[in-house]
């Protein structure tokens, strides 16, 4: 039986899907990366949809791998899931920067709603980060505390065109990583200090990791400083900034000058 409480249930779901994906890597190997990736997307999606249908049958679901049902726009509760975030890295032997995203959005009166719970499974790293209980606010690394450069996670394959100029202005080191979930998890754990992305993401790419980061007390916003809003008719949510609170003003200012 899974936990009843939504935050613990999200963690349970992410762990179930993560265990499946690790077993799938062992089963299929890496000789056919495209086949492995396709199987990972489908089997993780099928597992999550089955468990949500069994244990949360009244809730709506928005999944990267599913058909977008417009009925979600009037739902009071919506699970936003990415069954396999970082599909490219999942298909590469030895890479651990891929994730499973499970988030719950809840309507709050007449407002735009809130992310009520979230979990980011990092199966190859043997951990799941959840919003409940929240992760502790990350400690400042000794290197940064000693005056070293802050570390900004960025996409391995499509970094924002403006990010090099931002990094130069604030004196940052860029750290390429795979999955958006892995990048935001690295901010939560203090392995990096910020994650900036511009272009090419959707609600399922950020909902779960943003829920986890916000619960830990980190800054989360669009790159213009406006709020990240979920369960919109257009599921595109192309940019975001997740960082330590003390860095937010300088990073938003630098992005505004170069983006």
Automatic annotation (TrEMBL):
Sorted UniProt keywords: Hydrolase
Record-linked InterPro entries: CysQ/Inositol_MonoPase, Inositol_monophosphatase-like
Keyword Hydrolase assigned: yes
Domain of life per record: Bacteria
Keyword Hydrolase attributed: yes
Assigned EC number: 3.1.3.7
Any GO molecular function: 3'(2'),5'-bisphosphate nucleotidase activity
Protein's recorded name: 3'(2'),5'-bisphosphate nucleotidase CysQ
